[in-house]
Prior knowledge:
Number of helices: 5
Helix content: 25-40%
CATH architecture: 3-Layer(aba) Sandwich
CATH superfamily: Gcn5-related N-acetyltransferase (GNAT)
Radius of gyration: 15 Å
Shape: globular
Order of helices and strands: EHHHEEEHEHEE
CATH class: Alpha Beta
Strand order of the largest sheet: 1-2-3-4-5-7-6
Largest sheet: 7 strands, mixed
Number of strands: 7
Amino acid sequence: MSAHSFRIAGAADAAALADFMSRNFLATYGHCSSAANIAATIDKHYGLAAQQRQVGDPARVNLLLELDGAIVGHAQMHFDGETPAAVQPLPSGEVSRFYIDTAFHGRGLAQAMMAKARELALERGVRSLWLSCWQQQPQAIRFYEKEGFQITGTLVFEVGDDPKDDWLMVAPLA
């Protein structure tokens, strides 16, 4: 396998990131709701306009994992956002996106990307990371638990007009 590299996304990456996120959201969650709800969610959170807005947001860091020049992973961290009460210690950062392209699962890339995400969070003075993980994703839950996240509560993620029960997971940083 070729060497991977990390970089922070810029405005010029919005279209490629929209393609990556739309494709991977569909592969991961396409079965969880109606086609209309999936399409609405992709448009709202992962489409081109959403990526342009998110890449331009100074409170967000969009970490790209590349292999041979192609995006194979994306972690988005949101700082200065609203933090659920069960998140400690503060200050915290939200891991609002964490995707490895399905073709690259099982290669250790997710662990490398999480290590880089922790490094970036520590540079911002963050003392914990939190995320929302769908309760029907046992593989993702196991990964996050291996990475030091613990379930501390529940949240709801709207897929269109279809509410999904998520776990609130928190990891303290050293």
